[in-house]
Amino acid sequence: MADRPYDYLSALGARIAIARNELGMSQTKLAEALGISLRAYQSYELGKRSIPVEALVEMHRKFEVDLNWILLGVEAVRMKHDIAALEEFEVALDRYLSDSGTKLKSEKRGAIAARWYRSFLEGKEIAMDDVHTWIELLRE
Known about the structure:
It holds the Pfam family HTH_3. Residues 16-70 form the HTH cro/C1-type domain. One of its GO terms (molecular function) is DNA binding. It comes from Marivita cryptomonadis. By secondary structure, this protein is mostly helical. 72% of the residues lie in helices and 0% in strands. The protein contains eight helices and no strands. The protein has helices at residues 5-23, 27-34, 38-45, 53-63, 67-72, 79-100, 106-121, 128-138. The protein starts with a helix and ends with a helix.
């Protein structure tokens, strides 16, 4: 994290601007949606002032903005994205099990999916070859 408050505010402002851009909104529209003046909003993006907690909460409520990322620069669980990744993994897992004729008890299959998902959330990508090794170790 930045050492000086100004550095932190600059980084915070940059993340706010990125989030706004990802929402496809102008500064004017987001300021209106948050119930703050355009001038105040612009000062947040420029890193001249810290955005009030109330405005951040409103961004999260209205637009599902990741507040961990806005405030700290680290991502929290991005529910829709993460669930989609888990579903994609489970489809690939089921396809592999079916194609290889491998039978696993549901608890073992669940353990594999849970371990993969935990690693995914921690940012540690697990290669499917490693998952196949897990399957071989758990094969009935």
